[in-house]
Amino acid sequence: MDSTWTERTLSLPDAGQLRGCPPGALLRLWRDVGLALLAAALTALRVWQARVGARDELRELDARTLADIGLTVEAVAWEIRKPFWEA
């Protein structure tokens, strides 16, 4: 799973663009916006969960294993202290 986070912006029509829309268009717009927000929230939760899991795995490794993969104990200690929302 890719743990990068990209911001997306929603382009909402202004009131002038909504005049003359077919019935239910505004309702569909709000549904689509709600689904987009839900998808973004679920993506953030998955990323955060992956970070917690990766940091838990790092926490379990001993100094020799960390040295084998090119990490120092200090670097891992710094990484596992970060809150889940920080990359």
Folded structure, characterized:
It is a single chain. The protein is mainly alpha-helical. The protein has a domain at 24-81. 63% of the residues lie in helices and 0% in strands. The protein contains four helices and no strands. Helix 2 runs antiparallel to helix 4. The longest helix has 36 residues, at 25-60. The model has no long low-confidence stretch (mean pLDDT 86).
Give the low-confidence spans.
none
Sheet having the most strands: none
Helicity level, as a percent range?
55-70%
Query: In angstroms, what is the radius of gyration?
Result: 21 Å
Query: What's the total number of strands?
Result: 0
Structural class: mainly alpha
- Average of per-residue pLDDT values: 86
Determine the number of helices (DSSP H or I, runs of at least 4 residues). 4
Shape: rod-shaped
C-alpha termini separation: 14 Å
Helix and strand sequence: HHHH
Please state roughly what percent of the residues sit in beta strands, choosing from under 5%, 5-15%, 15-25%, 25-35%, 35-45% or over 45%: under 5%
Sequence-ordered SSE layout with sheet pairings:
Blueprint: H1 15-18, H2 25-60, H3 63-68, H4 73-81
List key phrases describing it.
single chain; 87 residues; mainly alpha
